Amino acid sequence: MDFTNKPEVDVAYYILSELGDTMFYKDLIMQVIEKKNKPIQSLSTAISEIYTLINMDSRFRHAGNGMWQLSEWITQE
């Protein structure tokens, strides 16, 4: 699948949904960068930008200890 023109958060969503499990934020972001195959000027800037996008997107939930999961995995009680 070509992720070049997809938004970073959509790529992150795809990665987590394919994995079906929580993922450490830095591993998730590095996979997003790899799948986007886009040159970056500063790795630390790219990581913080993608982290912010994921943090602001309601499809994602912080699971603690730097782990992220999809909101749809959380059961409603």
Low confidence ranges? none
Query: Major sheet: order of its strands?
Result: 1-3-2
Q: Using only CA atoms, what is the Rg?
A: 12 Å
Class by alpha and beta content:
alpha+beta
Helix content, binned percent:
40-55%
Give the tally of β-strands. 3
The first-level CATH class name: Mainly Alpha
Protein name: RNAP delta factor
GO molecular function, one term: nucleotidyltransferase activity
Family: Belongs to the RpoE family.
Keywords: DNA-directed RNA polymerase, Nucleotidyltransferase, Transcription, Transferase
Structure commentary:
One of its GO terms (biological process) is regulation of DNA-templated transcription. InterPro entries: Asxl_HARE-HTH, RNAP_delta_N_dom_sf, RpoE. GO terms for molecular function: nucleotidyltransferase activity. This is RNAP delta factor. The protein is α+β, with helices and mostly antiparallel strands. The protein is built from 3 helices and 3 strands, in the order αβααββ. The protein has a single domain, classed as Arc Repressor Mutant, subunit A. A 3-stranded antiparallel β-sheet has the order 1-3-2. Strand 2 and strand 3 form a beta hairpin. The termini are far apart.
Blueprint (SSEs and pairs):
Elements: H1 8-19, E1 23-24, H2 25-36, H3 43-56, E2 60-64, E3 67-70
Antiparallel strand pairs: 1-3, 2-3
Short description:
This protein is an alpha+beta fold.
Features:
nucleotidyltransferase activity; 3 helices; Arc Repressor Mutant, subunit A; 77 residues; RNAP_delta_N_dom_sf; alpha+beta; three-stranded antiparallel beta sheet; 49% helix; 14% strand
